[in-house]
Queue: 2 jobs
Job 1
Amino acid sequence: MAEQARHGFTRRSFIRGAAVLTAAGALVGCSPKTRDLEETDEKQQEAPETQIFSGVCRGNCAGGCFLNIHVRDGQVVRTSAREMPDPQYNRICMKGLSHPHRIYSAERLQYPLRRTGERGDDQWERISWDEAMGEIAEKWNGYVEEFGPASVGLFTGSGNYGLVNGMSTGGVTSRFLAASGIAYLNQTVDAAANFATSRLLGMGYYSSGNEPADMLNARTILIWGANPAISQIQNMHFLMEARDNGTKLIAIDPMLSQTAARSDQWIPVRSGTDGALALGMMNYIVEQGWQDLDFLREHSVAPCLVKESDGKFLRQADLDGTEVSAEDAKNAATALVMGADGATGVVGTVADPQLEGTFEVNGIKATTAYSLLLERIAEYPVSRAAEITGVSEDLIRDVAEQYACNTPSSIYTFFGIDHYWNGHWSQGCLGTLAILTGNVGKPGAFCGFQECLGSGLGNAVLASPEGAPGQAAKYNAPFLTKAFDEGEYAGEPFNLKMAMFSHTNAVTNMADRNDTLSWMNRCEFLVGADMVMTDTMRYCDIVLPVAHWFEKEDVFVSYATHPFCLYQEKAVEPAFESRADIDIFNELAERVGCGDIFKITTEEYLEQMFRTPQAQAMGADLATLKEKKAVRQAGEEGEAYVYGEGGVFATTSKLAELYVENPVGSNPYTEGWDLAKEHLAYWEPALQVGDEERRKTYPIQLLSEHSRFRTHTQWFEADMLKEIDTEPFIKLSPTDAATYGIQTGDQVRAYNELGSVVLTAQINPGLPQGMATCPKGWEAHEFIEGSFTELFTKEGNPFCSNQAYFDCTVAIEKR
Ligand SMILES: Nc1nc2c(c(=O)[nH]1)N[C@H]1C(S)=C(S)[C@@H](COP(=O)(O)OP(=O)(O)OC[C@H]3O[C@@H](n4cnc5c(=O)[nH]c(N)nc54)[C@H](O)[C@@H]3O)O[C@H]1N2
Ligand SMILES: Nc1nc2c(c(=O)[nH]1)N[C@H]1C(S)=C(S)[C@@H](COP(=O)(O)OP(=O)(O)OC[C@H]3O[C@@H](n4cnc5c(=O)[nH]c(N)nc54)[C@H](O)[C@@H]3O)O[C@H]1N2
Ligand code: SF4
Ligand SMILES: [Mo]
């Protein structure tokens, strides 16, 4: 191994990797580069000493790309795209290609560490696993005994979407939470979009939208608050192919994003006003009579009667003067509708239910949900929508017409709208627009995450093992400081003493970095588990080194832009003293007294997963997965999976619920909240971005675009990527740059009442005046001064707890 380099990859593989990087941005799985790779690959396979394992790249980029892991002498030398059963889903990006640079990075945590300096000082001593686990367990057991199980909390993020070693539902962290019965520290990230669309259409967090290949079936696609050219590059080729086939792509985005630049039309909407835009479009659609009345009547709650007295659906029990059963009260399918003949009946049983009207039945006044929606829509004539959104009346009418008439239409959305204080409202308006026009539940029609999030394989069984007490409490992170101050959380005693951080870089990724550090520092003891020394690990008292994804066996079942369940073979041994998460949590469980409940091996994990009803429905078993390495979870070959096909959705009623009868908030402090804002499509301005008074002091909106070169902070340790993505930049519009006398390369300070950051400027003509953006994912030491994540408010929506990252305004000055 004369070629052996310092970090364990050969010089040849490094050069090859670097060549691939010249195609920066291209999804290599779809470009001519792939062929080069595959040819090289065949030659590699002939080399007797190289073994190839199947693997999955599984950070939070919504990717889950299927990879070959090339191993020589027990070390990963390179990766390549692995053939999927459906070649439309073959893919890898430059991050996927640079895994060896992560695995053998100098930032890799090598052995357990104990803090010796102040928190954050980065001074450590090496300790043994036994000492580390002993100390953690001693503290843990002591706190639980003295202050109860909610005095210890587990904070998880989005580090690894593997089922076994990951943090999604059913993964080790959720199983451990349930088994140990401690508190869950909830990051409330990405919490508005799904909250809104799920209550309309019933997709749970990890259940599927239409399969990405279904985009090819749409005639119009509104790419609304999403930047797939960067943030779901795996999907981008479907969009481009659809466009080549004549599908109209319309990007609705305040800036000329990389995706907008590749679309047929760009609608520059004012930030945070999407709900008003959707309502204005609905207004015009209704005026023109383009709504889908049959769909509304048959597949939605539109004809259901809503009582004027309490906003609940009218049910037979109301007419009989008896109590509505608890079960019926949760099921809109038991609501009454008004037949053309004036007789009421349960939705679905009345031949020609009236969509509009207010009726008095047995002295009870009730209006159809559809009429209530029309009243809401009437508040947004196109002229008003134009005034709020900055989009001209003609353009609003034009987009509305294309969406409603050139069908089937899809709304491809991701988290660009979610990240505002008013995110769930705007997102709800998009979903309502889709229901109004019947653009859901059929090929080419969907509204939400146009990707296959997986079938929920194994979640329920694995997430709550037998005998598990379940988590003691759920604390939303933005309220932790308040809870420490008040000694209570939502009326309950609060006594958090210890927190464990696993699969998260909370310090860099939570809004209001200084607030995160402040509540962390009010905990007596902090434990971290990660592959690398992150800003979060730096503040922990004990840090545990975790094995890289390729160093542990696993399976990938959820949160992917493809419909496959993929097998991760253990390709190499964990580097240094690192351990797989499942081993760490098994030992911890043993030491904190819940070993009997939690205990599970990887093999048992996989076996149990395949015993779930979802797996049975899939018709696959573990042996097939191990043999084929990839099995389809949803849809069929050549026929893309469609969510809610035939207009049957996963809501309790199976209907599209454009009127939400029982809105349940995720913010713990919702008492007295005006539910009129939650039943129907609704909009009000964003918090900072929509506040004209604030913008006199802090005039510039600061966006955090998701970086092409990192998945959040992951890959910061891959030096090779840093050669092309050298430092964090703030991108400014030419107008603002001129106003402040700033040129590309100048140092700029951006600040507000929460913090400040200094970074280098770039002028970007794609940005409107008053908007700046900075790719996210940089650790504090990578900035010239301060940290970008100091600037974002933790103030989320009062009903739907979220992280409103984009709802941020700052002042800027040239340094
Ligand atoms: N300012 C601003 N901040 C944002 C956003 C924004 O737009 N603006 N976006 C937000 C969004 S949308 C999200 S989803 C969050 C993401 O926030 P995080 O989930 O915190 O994202 P990552 O930086 O990927 O951190 C995951 C950590 O898990 C570690 N990890 C990876 N694999 C494993 C494993 O197998 N085991 C263990 N134990 N650890 C592992 C990684 O090394 C990494 O340190 O960031 C949010 N932060
Ligand atoms: N390479 C890479 N991929 C990633 C990630 C990563 O860090 N790196 N992170 C992953 C995660 S967890 C997430 S949440 C997703 C995010 O995925 P996306 O939501 O697709 O990406 P974002 O960069 O957050 O921004 C989306 C778009 O919304 C636009 N936007 C901002 N404000 C508004 C608004 O008010 N209205 C409208 N209509 N548009 C607006 C922005 O200009 C941007 O073009 O990406 C995932 N994929
Ligand atoms: S980072 Fe995302 S797109 Fe790139 S290889 Fe990994 S999963 Fe695929
Ligand atoms: Mo996210």
Job 2
Amino acid sequence: MDLRLNVFLLALCCWMACASMPVEIGMLPPPREVSLTFRNDFCVTLAWRPPQNLNRSTCDLQYYITEAFGQEVGQYTRTDTHFESCLDMERGVNYTIRTQPKNCGDMTDSKDIVRGASPPKEKLVKDFECIYYTSGSMNCTWSPADQTTDLQLYYWYKNMAQPLKPCGLYLYTGGLKTGCHLHGDFLNVTNLTTEVFFLINRTHGPSTLQNKFKRTTRDNMKPFPPKLNMKKKEGGMLELSCDPPSGFDPSLDYWDYTLRYRTSKDSNWKEISPVRCTALVPYDHHFQYRVQVKAICKDICGTGASDWSQEECYGQDQASDWSFHLTLIAIPVVITICVILFLFFLKKLRVLILPQIPDPLKLFKELINSKEVSTDAGSNLMESKIWEKQKVYVPERPELCVDVWLVDQDP
Ligand SMILES: *[C@@H]1O[C@H](CO)[C@@H](O)[C@H](O)[C@H]1NC(C)=O
Ligand SMILES: *[C@@H]1O[C@H](CO)[C@@H](O)[C@H](O)[C@H]1NC(C)=O
Ligand SMILES: *[C@@H]1O[C@H](CO)[C@@H](O)[C@H](O)[C@H]1NC(C)=O
Ligand SMILES: *[C@@H]1O[C@H](CO)[C@@H](O)[C@H](O)[C@H]1NC(C)=O
Ligand SMILES: *[C@@H]1O[C@H](CO)[C@@H](O)[C@H](O)[C@H]1NC(C)=O
Ligand SMILES: *[C@@H]1O[C@H](CO)[C@@H](O)[C@H](O)[C@H]1NC(C)=O
């Protein structure tokens, strides 16, 4: 064979080898024929074919997919050639897909292929919200974007046969449909991850406008508030306790609790978060205690909390009552005034009511010094009367007798 021909063939071989080489050592080719299709009202299928020019037995591949609803981004990898997802279409969705080397020499990721579905252009309803409040029941509410009265809500969950079920019980506000009460085994508490899909459309009108939503039970927990119990304990403590929220299997350890209380003395709430729903708080019987409790979903349960329970009262307020304070001040004041008045009048009346008891010492002195006794100008009526009495007891007759004897001596 001609040497030049040999060299040419060799060079051609080398060139062909070299030409195919960049694929194997550079960037992987992206997947082909990427399509996004709606499998039903809520679920999409992203499908593609493997890239060309790759020897699959020498180059192992996988596909990296992102699913974005605005800021929320989910990441997935697949080795087969399709990806399925049931969506919340409120905000639309964007997918990116790229080829990644699993075991493929020095190859790097391919560029991204992007596919998306846009959100509805017009909104039939706003503020679509659901609360999962008891096992088997969920209420969803919304505010209509206009005065449309012919809104229809349909719902669906995975494993439910199509077609969608219409809402069985609408909730109304002022004649407009503003909510739907859902009930069924699919909302069973043992399956908190249940995803429920909603479609709202109009029964009349030219537009085929639809709004679609997805809600997960575990993200919308809102049980009824727990029932609160209060009991006075020895040692001046008040025991607070509660029963788990009704409507859910009490054996499921789903709840954390927050208790708060305030007294008639201090109107600021004091919060306590016990592990179990029981707590001891120092109790002062002078004040009334007002207590509330709420249940909060644990991680295993999801997110959400009950409202605060109604205020439960314990004890009677004795201190903050204004009349109590008033009485507290008024009683001593009144007593003091009464005592002063009493003493004042007593001094005045003593003279009339209680005559002065005669002083025996004084009487004795008067008996001795009877001659010197004379009616004292300064003495009062009482004293002079006593004095007159004394005269009765001390007669001066003997002296008169002596005088008579003196007269008898005359010649
Ligand atoms: C792929 O590579 C394997 C192993 O190197 C080889 O046996 C096979 O022939 C190649 N197939 C193609 C289509 O190139
Ligand atoms: C999808 O991508 C487009 C273009 O980048 C962007 O305008 C839109 O907001 C994205 N949508 C979502 C739901 O992320
Ligand atoms: C949910 O709706 C039903 C039906 O109107 C109603 O009886 C129930 O009280 C509602 N639940 C809550 C938590 O609002
Ligand atoms: C929940 O589902 C389980 C199994 O399907 C069933 O045994 C249980 O009775 C259901 N509970 C309620 C509250 O529906
Ligand atoms: C809970 O949901 C999962 C996924 O939706 C399902 O596979 C499972 O059978 C459900 N369990 C019960 C008890 O319903
Ligand atoms: C509204 O949606 C339901 C469920 O997909 C469908 O059966 C019904 O025909 C729709 N109504 C209109 C007016 O499009």
